[in-house]
Specification:
By secondary structure, the protein is mainly α. It has a domain at 220-294: Serine Threonine Protein Phosphatase 5, Tetratricopeptide repeat. 78% of the residues lie in helices and 0% in strands. It contains 14 helices and no strands. The chain is globular, with a radius of gyration of 20 Å. This is Kinesin light chain.
Length: 294
């Protein structure tokens, strides 16, 4: 998950904060071009105000532009903005600061998407080390980087390392949020991914089920998170050859995602494709074609 530095939107400029909020809304609506346009306009205005000086708002605006570019798949351009933000944050705070760690984490995700996964993992570990020294080992700002690290290790096929990061993150979240928290659901879902990848299908279903219950409690039954984990349950059922059950779950998860983010959101495409595969395997070629055309 890409993250802004902790002070994003709330620093020296109220207008900057409002513009950033507008861009976030566009991003959640899938209007990535509009989000990028707003972030770039904000960056231009801040550069005009502050000139060449290192300023917190300028560095944060560089990060937000980088995030928008990353979300659009423009990785080289995103990295250039992150590198400029990193240099500025280091100039403002030194190497041992949470803002520096956040940008390093975002840079690591770019490296992963450029096929430089080993470099990305090393950078994520560096960012996590900075946060451990800044906050201590049992802080909410440690759990999220552990979750991101787990995903990166999964992408590298290093499932044991990924499981260790997810379990550590889960332990932290449960200690600091005994009342339950959405990040706990993400850790539970991540552990489900590990077991799915290891073909431990019953274990995967059990952990996805825990994540499903956690998401329903924390973000509600009509959230995108609930829809996504229902689709993950459907994928496991498909691997088990339970096509009817899998098809039913895909339909359920896709309907929830549509209601949560709209029919045109990019998050709808992946479950549609999976549903098409499920229908094709069940012999419903007409249904598969309908999904693929959409």
């Amino acid at each position: 998950t890409l993250r802004l530095p902790p002070g994003a939107g709330g620093g020296g400029s109220e207008e900057f904060g409002l513009v950033s909020l507008l861009a976030v809304v566009y991003g959640k609506q899938g209007r990535l071009d509009d989000a990028l346009r707003v972030h770039r306009r904000s960056l231009r205005e801040l550069r005009r105000v502050h000139g060449d000086e290192h300023h917190e708002d300028v560095a944060t605006a560089l990060t937000t532009v980088g995030i928008s570019l990353y979300n659009m798949g423009q990785y080289a351009e995103a990295m250039a903005k992150y590198e400029e933000a990193h240099e500025m944050f280091v100039g403002l705070h030194g190497e041992e600061h949470e803002d520096v760690a956040e940008v390093l984490g975002n840079m690591a995700l770019v490296l992963g998407n450029q096929g430089r996964g080993a470099e990305g993992l090393a950078m994520q570990e560096k960012a996590l080390d900075i946060k451990r020294r800044t906050f201590g080992s049992d802080d909410r700002d440690i759990a999220q980087p552990l979750l991101s690290l787990g995903k990166s290790y999964v992408n590298q096929g290093m499932l044991d390392e990924a499981l260790a990061r997810y379990e550590e993150g889960l332990g932290i979240v449960r200690r600091i949020h005994p009342e339950r928290n959405v990040t706990e659901g993400c850790c539970l879902e991540g552990i489900g991914h590990i077991y799915h990848g290891q073909r431990r299908f019953e274990d995967a279903l059990a952990w996805y089920g825990k994540a499903h219950r956690m998401y329903r409690k924390t973000v509600g039954p009509e959230s995108e998170d609930v829809g996504r984990v229902v689709c993950n349950i459907a994928r496991v059922l498909s691997r088990q050859g339970k096509r009817d059950d899998s098809n039913e779950k895909f339909e359920e998860g896709l309907a929830i995602i549509r209601r949560a983010v709209g029919d045109e959101h990019p998050q709808v495409a992946d479950p549609l494709y999976s549903l098409a595969e499920c229908k094709e395997e069940a012999g419903d070629l007409e249904g598969a074609i309908v999904c693929l055309r959409e």
